[in-house]
Amino acid sequence: MVDVALHGGALASDKVTTRAKAIDRLRLGDAAFRHLTRAAAVGVLLLLSGVMISLFAGSLPAIRAFGFGFLASERWNPVTDKFGALPAIYGTLVTSAIAMLIAVPVGLMIAFFLTELCPQWLRRPIGIAVELLAGIPSIIYGIWGLFVFAPFLQQTLQPFLIGTLGNVPVIAPLFSGPPYGIGVLTSGLILAIMVLPFVTSISRDVFEAVPAVLKEAAYGVGCTTWEVARYVVLPYARVGVIGGVMLGLGRALGETMAVTFVIGNAHRISVSLLAPGTTISATIANEFTEAVGTLYTSALIELGLILFVITFIVLAAARYMLARIERRIG
Amino acid sequence: MSVQGLAARYASRRRRNGVAKGLSLAATLFGLGWLVLILAALLWQGFSGLSLAVFTQMTPPPGSSGGLLNPIVGSLALTVLAVVIGTPIGILAGTYMAEYGRHDGLTSVVRFINDILLSAPSIVIGLFIYEVMVAPMGHFSGLAGGVALAVLVIPVVVRTTEDMLTLVPNALREAATSIGLPRYLAITRICYRAARAGMVTGVLLAVARISGETAPLLFTSLNNQFWSTNLNAPMASLPVVIFQFALSPYKDWQALAWTGALIITLAVLALSIIARSLVSSGKRS
């Protein structure tokens, strides 16, 4: 009996220790998994700071050589190692401006159509089509722009613009020169097509989030559909729309391949929108692999740093605005 | 105001309403028109070059016939590499944000930074990988290209994982805890299973996004005229070959570029349609 009792006791304590061990193991596993996921989350942060730091380190030689003059100089001469970012910055801003001038009104009108006018059964197909437009890779826009769109513009829109707006006193210089087909205007138009789905789908989402009561009240006092959209829906959704527009702007500023195909890669600032130019991303894409010498490479990396800083500011502002409207709705 | 004045004003408001409706319809047709035009051009130009040789032969030197086998295989290899590297990191980070640190400061910072990464210009990512991998290693490599694409995969997967895990009802977690499951097992065995369709969708969307990316590959994996599966050497990929061939003066190269563009577009569209149907079937069940 004593034997058995002793034996049983040992067995019980054995069980207790294995149980404690198992619990320890589970606790260890939990802590390990927790730290692993936390490390991955911190890794995402490190990724962004890594991008910043490595671009800054890469552009140090150019920063030392040119200082702030880099931002203001129009020269780009790999032979004499003289570089300036102004034409690229100018091209980036002008093409993006053209894109937004077209995409914002058109995108808002499509969102208005989808939320207020479109029959229910058509909403989903059109919404999907708009999102497919957003999913087409930019290189496809590039090859299409080069072989289809640019020749088309060269034969139709550009001669028309030269013949009409090219004779209007103040804006005539914008539309002077021969119709090359490729150039700043063509790039801006292609960017407009690429940005359009972004503006449309975010505007549609924020329009749909407008409380029905507000719209019904407006209809109740006799507003027309357009008046409801213009004076009730749009003001209510304003912050979200601006967020969507800036998100689109972020894409337009950083877009590379589509622009590289049709901008013409000319490092000069031309008043005419029909002339070839360049953008920051097109310059990097065209010249980086062929760049010889530290200073040339470094100047291109500094261009990348400038682009990253510009888009960072725009995207941060966009996210801030979208978060604000989310808080209001949610 | 006289009755006529009111009537005239009403008529003008109605006219304005009509014009706005007409404009919005026109805008929609305008927007959809581009999709039709681009797809039509792709099919028109790309289908004529589509043949078995495209999938069985290497990229040719100018003036002779050939196919796109090496860039197709290269693109597949780079995509697989990017998914293998990027998905685990993205899922783990998303898991922390939705499960362990849903309300802490780190999560909101990571969410903000991740949203920035999500729409950061991809060419900048290419420069970053060039700086940290290509320059120290001294040569372009498929590995660098895969890592560059992985950097683009991570934010997409983080975003969808966090969103999908947040949608998993808390009752499931409570039930798992009540039967004594530790947190990590509750997450990996219960929450992941509940959110699986959405998480797979995220990976598919990420693949759709990177399969057409060109800019980050230009100075990481570069290009390779020949058959190569060596990840430590330059590697061909469809987008870069399209870029090179389309800008060349040779007609047969340009034709191959169109065919490659058609293949990429069909792949991307198929991926996004599969992802979409996964989401809607997940919603129904």
In total, the number of strands of chain A is 2
Strand content of chain A: under 5%
Question: What is the N-to-C order of secondary-structure elements of chain A (H for helix, E for strand)?
Answer: HHEEHHHHHHHHHH
Q: Supply the number of structural domains of chain A.
A: 2
Overall geometric form of chain B: flat
Integer average pLDDT of chain B: 90
CATH architecture of the largest domain in chain B: Orthogonal Bundle
- Main beta sheet strand tally, sense and closure of chain A: 2 strands, antiparallel
Strand content of chain B: under 5%
Q: What does this entry look like structurally?
A:
The complex is a heterodimer of chains A (330) and B (285). With 330 residues, chain A is mainly α. Chain A has twelve helices and two strands. Chain A folds into two domains: 1-66; 67-329, MetI-like fold. In chain A, 46% of the residues are buried. With 285 residues, chain B is mainly alpha-helical. Chain B has two domains: 3-48; 54-284, Orthogonal Bundle (MetI-like fold), CATH 1.10.3720.10. In chain B, 78% of the residues lie in helices and 0% in strands. The chains are: A mainly alpha (330), B mainly alpha (285). Chains A and B meet through α1, α3, α4, α5 and α7 of A and α1, α3, α4, α5 and α6 of B.
Secondary-structure map with pairings?
The complex is a heterodimer of chains A (330) and B (285).
Chain A: H1 2-66, H2 69-72, E1 76-77, E2 82-83, H3 86-117, H4 120-135, H5 138-155, H6 157-163, H7 184-208, H8 212-220, H9 225-254, H10 257-262, H11 280-287, H12 294-329
Antiparallel strand pairs in A: 1-2
Chain B: H1 3-47, H2 52-56, H3 69-100, H4 105-119, H5 122-137, H6 142-167, H7 170-178, H8 183-194, H9 196-211, H10 215-218, H11 238-246, H12 251-284
Helix pairs in contact in B: 1-12, 3-6, 3-9, 3-11, 4-6, 5-6, 6-9, 7-8, 9-12, 11-12
